[in-house]
Amino acid sequence: MGDLIDSPKDLDNDDSRRLLTNTIKKSAAIAPTIVILGSHDFVLESKSGNAVVANGEFWQELDDMKNVHILLDRTYQDEKMFFMGYVQTLKYYYNNIEKTHIEDLEAFYEDMVTKENLYKNLPKDVPTVGLIHSPEFAKDEKNVELMKEYNLLIGGHDHDGCVPFGLFNTKRGLISPKKELFPKDVRGVRTLSSGTDLLISGGIVKMGNSCPKIMQPLNYLCPIQMETVELTNDEIYKDNISVSKRLVRTK
């Protein structure tokens, strides 16, 4: 779900490249492995002060591996599943003047609405899953409407809100990437107004080296989180009418 590395500069290190490559290889030896990029993976400040997408050649090398699919604004489908991977823009993530981390919901719409292949005319005979690193976009109903054809949307980015010891069975966290205290909806599953389910994965690392040093020890208190998602064709009943819908269960 993105944030495979802490900073694009990490891949200047041969050991880091090898570790990430081997991890992806081991996953691909088990099953098709679908990867998207997050805010830590692809934004790099150039000497001119402009932000650029970094390590494109490396991500292409991974995509060329058997059973690996790096979805950068594209889709993947086999006989069982349909996946879409969207790379949110720099404008979505950052205020370039103040260099602060934001989620510009309007910027999501402005970019996504031009990419009809990512959200229109999805297949009807297999489950459809949209992978979008930051789930904040779903706080704007225009964006929810764009993505309504998906059975399931999955995001990451919030790192489970870094809840120490995994305490409290709520969707609130301790702190968000925007340094917002006690943020809402940073983990778990919720159903959007369109009927599409949104799963927010907590991920493995909560506080990387890019975080302020005073906060980095929290990483040892916040547990690794992974999700198992089960998709079924069970029937549900609404107003005494049988409605066929794919149900999402997580473990």
- Strand neighbour order, sheet with most strands: 5-6-9-10-12-11
> What is the molecular shape?
globular
- Helix count equals 6
- Distance from N terminus to C terminus (CA atoms, Å) equals 17 Å
Structural class by helix and strand composition? alpha/beta
Mean pLDDT rating = 85
What is the fold's blueprint, element by element?
Elements: H1 14-28, E1 33-35, H2 39-42, E2 43-45, E3 51-53, H3 56-63, E4 68-70, E5 74-77, E6 82-86, H4 90-93, E7 94-95, E8 100-101, H5 105-112, E9 128-132, H6 141-146, E10 152-155, E11 188-191, E12 197-200, E13 229-232, E14 235-238, E15 241-244, E16 247-250
Parallel strand pairs: 1-4, 6-9, 9-10, 10-12
Antiparallel strand pairs: 2-3, 5-6, 7-8, 11-12, 13-16, 14-15
Description:
The protein is of the alpha/beta class and 251 residues long. The chain has six helices and 16 strands. The strands form six sheets. The chain has a six-stranded mixed beta sheet, with no helix packed on it. It has a two-stranded parallel ribbon with strand order 1-4. A two-stranded antiparallel sheet has the order 2-3. A hairpin with a 4-residue loop joins β5 and β6. The longest helix has 15 residues. About 4% of the residues have low confidence.
In short:
This protein has 251 residues and is α/β, with parallel strands linked by helices. 18% of the residues lie in helices and 23% in strands.
Give descriptors for this structure.
251 residues; alpha/beta; six-stranded mixed β-sheet; two-stranded parallel sheet; 23% strand
